[in-house]
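Dear colleague,

Thank you for sharing your sequence with our group. We've completed the structure prediction you requested, and as agreed, I am returning the results in plain text so they can be pasted directly into your records. Please verify that the sequence below matches your submission; if there's any discrepancy, let me know and we will rerun it promptly.
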Amino acid sequence: MPGYPVAVGHSEIELHVKNSRFIGRAGTAASVDEAKAFIADIRQRFPDASHHCYAFAAGYGATVTHGMSDDGEPSGTAGRPMLAVVQGADIGDVVVVATRYFGGTKLGTGGLVKAYTETAQAALADLRVELKVDTVLLRVVLHYDSYAPCRKRIEDLGGVVEDEEYAASVVLLVRAEVEIVDSLRSALGDMTAGRALVDPVG
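Please find the predicted structure tokens below.
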């Protein structure tokens, strides 16, 4: 199946563990800058919190960039277990922040790992996920006599015609999944004896 699962929108949950309050918030982060902006927004929203621990996966698969922080909690008790949850969820373009208000009772290393793991899991469980498909915008130039059959072929292959211009030739702006571009170019070439021009825009 083409595409990959990504976070959409945001979620917010709250857990209480031995008087400490944990606020988990997850959202979309298609880049490291977006993840940092999301984290900064949480810090501004809860400026008096004890900690803002986080983990993110900007991108997916071979192009993913991970990040995490314990934000003052003992090393390895917050950011790393949260990142393990993010990686286990197999979601791209996602950031999770666990904001803690210390309640006066220390949780210990194991207790912290458990609390931050459960906060991240609950935030992700409440987050909407959808399939993201990489697309490209193509400029297709056709002679008038091949316009109708070529337009139908484009649509049959899954391309979407977003705009049309009529001048000396017909110019179509076509949105297509990256995976079908070669097939589309080959099909139009065969149908027009190589006269069709198919080039990416930008």
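Summary note from our side: The domain at 135-200 is CATH 3.30.70.240 (Alpha-Beta Plaits).

Kind regards,
the structure core
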